[in-house]
Task: structure prediction
Amino acid sequence: MPKRVAMCLNPDGLDPVPEVKAAVADAGKRLERAGWTVEEIANTPPLREAADLQTKLWLGDGYEAQLEMPPNARAIPARWPACAATGQKCFRSMGRRCRRR
Result:
């Protein structure tokens, strides 16, 4: 059975931090050296909804209730930055904040 893998550096149009892109590209090169066929694809199926649902799972049952609280009474949702252009949660910024902790 042939060993094949697809690799996408900008899944669902997201722009991962350079370190993530480099790690994915490096993984692709390692797989090629191990005999795999690596195909770089331009996009993936939508991921944003799945990422939002995963966030809700991580934060537990109180997530939705925290969004209704005044900002100074919230835990993590208050720290979750919104994208200036879309007003939606900015996963890239939150990732940076989590790594700094």
Q: What stands out?
A: The helical segments are 18-33, 48-59, 63-68, 76-79, 91-100. Residues 18-33 form the longest helix (16 residues). The chain has five helices and two strands. The mean pLDDT is 76.
